[in-house]
């Protein structure tokens, strides 16, 4: 990352704002940008501040695999992801930045009976909602990726409209355009404490400064529990370290992002030729402190090497270039947690996006901005309601979460 991209952003802050968003990941920034657009349409200057304690792309939004897919099992998720991918088609022009958006498809491999029936069910659903997903035999898989070892593959599903992006310009683009529309952003500015007021909140920032807000949006992802705990808000999402690596660039040979449903292994090839690959690590070690562990491990490296070579034998000669990790913000029922908090109706949650927050962010920003600005509440927010856990309304409905 060049120095300009990680250097501090320090817009002047007002004493009070209508909305303060804590966390400048993809979620906080896409929402800020969409809200600013709504303000512009009504010719109202936005009174919106975004505070980020580190540099842009320091959180999960700068550490992910950049995969975008409509291959989900739940009809609502399929529809949302279809909209997200649709938004992405025109987003590079809108944000005036190259997002490296490449639609090479997603290829899901089933190697056991249970995975096979999941894919068959999905494809039936996708046909009904108009997503161009189709089933492939093991033989047909080789037409898409000839280098795969398909001896154990029973069946696969393939959607040519799914794709990958390079995550960083996404975040920078939303930040840049939100600021151009009047949103104030400060990076390297941690919110250390939140104090409830008779109306709204006072946020205490590092360096002894503070800012008041009518409404606060907690968009701190895997760190959101810290903000919530200090206010007595109990929600069940929790961080989980997810490791990933990229290889040295090699000659392009791989169009789709490939996922092995059984092991949770996924890999794609970036536009620069690197193979980007991650895998779900079961029984990962428990963190030794409450700090989120962003370390990398040899255990991951040797596990993923074995799994990758078994499926893609040519990976034997691949040289790892970088290995890193990032935090998933796991929601126990797989649905995000979005809306007013229990006991704090003016403090909204925007968290719990597990391993798919990047791909859903474009549409969530659009829908949440509309809810915040006009009170128009999209149906997905009923299911994502933060109150559902305490009220016994939490129902897992998605079985295509990888990780
Ligand atoms: C390795 C990995 C691979 C992934 N692959 C994919 C993928 O292929 N596709 C996909 O869709 N999703 C993927 N994800 C998930 C996706 O990255 C996340 O769901 C998404 O980025 C979450 O965005 P966010 O804005 O909620 O959180 P973040 O990007 O983590 O942003 C939260 C921000 O809040 C800041 N913050 C925290 N505390 C404070 C505070 N007190 N004051 C101020 N700021 C604070 C943090 O510094 C951080 O920048 C992956 C995640 C990981 C870790």
Fill in the keyword field for this structure.
single chain; 403 residues; alpha/beta; FAD/NAD(P)-binding domain; D-Amino Acid Oxidase, Chain A, domain 2; 8-stranded mixed beta sheet; 25% strand; binds flavin-adenine dinucleotide
Short précis:
The protein has 403 residues and is α/β, with parallel strands linked by helices.
What CATH calls the topology of the largest domain is FAD/NAD(P)-binding domain
Q: What is the CA–CA distance across the termini?
A: 27 Å
- What share of the residues lie within helices? 25-40%
CATH C-level name of the largest domain: Alpha Beta
Principal-axes geometry comes out as globular
Bound molecules: flavin-adenine dinucleotide
Major β-sheet, in short?
Answer: 8 strands, mixed
Number of domains: 2
Question: Which secondary-structure class do the elements indicate?
Answer: alpha/beta
The total beta strand count reads: 18
Give me the CATH superfamily of the largest domain. FAD/NAD(P)-binding domain
Q: Give Rg in angstroms.
A: 21 Å
Give an account of the 3D structure.
- The chain has two domains: 182 residues, 3-Layer(bba) Sandwich (FAD/NAD(P)-binding domain), CATH 3.50.50; 148 residues, D-Amino Acid Oxidase, Chain A, domain 2.
- It contains ten helices and 18 strands.
- The mean pLDDT is 95.
- It is α/β, with parallel strands linked by helices and 403 residues long.
- Helix 2 runs parallel beside helix 9.
- It is 30% helix and 25% strand.
- Strand 13 and strand 14 form a beta hairpin.
- Strands 1, 2, 8, 9, 10, 11, 17 and 18 form an eight-stranded mixed β-sheet that branches. It has an eight-stranded mixed β-sheet with strand order 5-6-4-13-14-15-12-16.
- The chain is globular and about 65 Å long.
- The structure holds flavin-adenine dinucleotide.
């Amino acid at each position: 990352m060049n120095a300009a991209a990680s250097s501090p952003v320090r817009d002047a802050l007002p004493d009070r704002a209508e909305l303060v968003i804590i966390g400048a990941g993809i979620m906080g920034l896409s929402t800020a940008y969409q809200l600013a657009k709504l303000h512009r349409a009504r010719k109202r200057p936005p009174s919106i501040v975004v505070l980020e304690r580190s540099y842009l792309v320091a959180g999960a939004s700068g550490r992910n695999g950049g995969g975008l897919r409509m291959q989900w099992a739940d009809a609502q998720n399929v529809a949302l992801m279809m909209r997200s991918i649709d938004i992405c088609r025109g987003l590079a022009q809108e944000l005036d930045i190259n997002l490296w958006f490449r639609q090479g498809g997603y290829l899901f491999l089933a190697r056991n009976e249970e995975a096979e029936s999941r894919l068959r069910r999905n494809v039936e659903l996708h046909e009904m909602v108009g997503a161009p997903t189709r089933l492939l035999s093991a033989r047909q898989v080789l037409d898409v990726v000839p280098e795969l070892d398909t001896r154990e593959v029973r069946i696969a599903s393939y959607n040519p409209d799914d794709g990958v992006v390079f995550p960083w310009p996404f975040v920078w683009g939303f930040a840049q355009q939100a600021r151009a529309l009047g949103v104030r952003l400060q990076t390297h500015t941690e919110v250390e404490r939140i104090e409830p007021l008779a109306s709204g909140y006072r946020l205490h920032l590092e360096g002894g400064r503070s800012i008041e807000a009518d409404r606060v949006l907690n968009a701190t992802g895997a760190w959101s529990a810290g903000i919530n705990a200090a206010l007595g808000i109990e929600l069940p999402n929790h961080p989980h370290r997810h490791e990933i690596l990229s290889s040295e660039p090699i000659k392009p040979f791989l169009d789709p992002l490939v996922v092995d449903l059984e092991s949770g292994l996924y890999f794609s090839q970036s536009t620069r030729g690197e193979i980007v690959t991650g895998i779900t690590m079961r029984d990962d070690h428990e963190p030794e402190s409450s700090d989120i562990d962003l370390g990398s491990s040899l255990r991951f490296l040797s596990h993923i090497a074995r799994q990758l070579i078994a499926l893609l034998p040519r990976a034997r000669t691949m040289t790892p270039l970088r290995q890193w990790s990032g935090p998933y913000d796991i929601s126990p029922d797989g649905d995000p947690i979005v809306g007013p908090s229990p006991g704090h109706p003016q403090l909204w949650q925007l968290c719990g996006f597990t391993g798919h927050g990047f791909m859903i962010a474009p549409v969530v920003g659009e829908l949440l901005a509309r809810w915040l600005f006009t009170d128009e509440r999209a149906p997905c927010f009923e299911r994502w309601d933060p109150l559902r856990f305490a009220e016994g309304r939490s129902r897992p409905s998605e079985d295509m979460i990888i990780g």
